[in-house]
Amino acid sequence: MARRTKLIVALALLAAFVAAAFTLPIPSPAQLRTWAGGGPLTALLLLGAYSVLTVAPIPRTVFNLAAGLLLGDAAGIAVAITATAISGALGFGLARLLGRDLVSRHLQRRSVRTVNNRLADGGVLAITSLRLIPVVPFAPLGYCCGILDVRWRPYLVGTVLGSLPGTVAVVVLGDALTGGTPPGLLACYLAFALVGTLGMIKVVRGAAYDGATIATATLVPVREEGIRARSSQETQVVSEE
User: Fold this and answer.
1) Which of 38, 66, 56, 35 is nearest to 171 (CA)?
2) Of 94, 116, 217, 231, which one's alpha carbon is 20 to 30 angstroms from that of 15?
3) What is the four-CA torsion angle of 19, 22, 27, 30, rounded to 10 degrees?
4) CA neighbor of 121 nearest in space, from 195, 196, 192, 209
5) pLDDT band at 237, cuts 50/70/90?
6) How confident is the model at residue 114, as a pLDDT?
7) At what angle do helices 73-104 and 61-71 cross, to 10 degrees?
8) What angle, 0 to 180 degrees and rounded to 10, lies between the N-to-C axes of helices 40-53 and 61-71?
9) How many Cα atoms are found within 13 Å in the side-chain-facing hemisphere of 211?
10) Which regions span the lipid bilayer (predicted)?
């Protein structure tokens, strides 16, 4: 596929995703409970809707709550995590297929290269940490990882691990449907955000340490060459005397 064609398709998909996020009438979990009768068919329908719709930047919370209401804790968690993995993989794959060539020329820019290196070198820990932070949007992070040098397996494993605590909390605390967000869920979100932030701090510090180690290792041969040169000069002076 030509680069210009990829650009057109990528922009069209992005526009469609954004439009869907703002215009689609997403039903409330209470409405879904009324429509659905439970059972395997309900689980399959919820899995399909969750997996496809959240590829666009549509919040996953409503689907997690619906999973808890319609399927119960165990089945709801299983369906929600499976759909999360599928949705994350689809967003990542689309971004890599259509957007990779569009940013490859910009990877040498310092800011882009820094983000790319942090995510790519951070591996599972970096993705897990970001997924734990509730304010980091699910779909855009998948797009970002897809167009950068993040490898497929660390991304998918990190997505599942980082999304699991929040998904479990929302599915189990289905009482949030009766009104505002319950204090227990807010406490969970704060705890997940703290753990994710600590993980990213570790990733950033590890990257900085690796960079310093590489720089030191690079200077060692230069220092050794300088020492050898000075020794050679001293030996030559002595021999001339």
Assistant:
1) 66
2) 116
3) 150
4) 209
5) very low
6) 81
7) 160
8) 180
9) 10
10) 39-58, 70-99, 119-143, 155-177, 183-201
d(CA 64, CA 141): 19
Q: Give the per-residue pLDDT at 78.
A: 94
* Per-residue pLDDT band at 198 (split at 50, 70, 90): confident
Q: How many residues does the chain have?
A: 241
What residue spans of 24-151 are helical by DSSP H?
Answer: 29-35, 40-53, 61-71, 73-104, 110-132, 138-147
Instruction: For residue 178, give the DSSP letter.
Output: G
| Cα dihedral: 137, 149, 96, 19 (round 10) | 20
Give the angle subtended at the CA of 114 by the CAs of 112 and 118, to the nearest 5°: 120
Q: How far apart are CA 66 and CA 56, in angstroms?
A: 18
Taking CA atoms, 208 is separated from 46, 156, 202, 204, in Å, by 43, 25, 10, 6
- The single-letter code of the amino acid at 115 is V
Handedness of CA 181, 60, 135, 128 (dihedral sign): positive
The amino acid occupying position 211 is: G
Give the Cα separation of 64 and 83 in Å (integer).
10
In the structure encoding, which two tokens stand for residue 237, read together? Answer: 């002076």
pLDDT at residue 19 is higher than 80: no
The pair of structure tokens assigned to 234 is 């001293």
Query: 162, 132 in Cβ contact below 8 A?
Result: yes
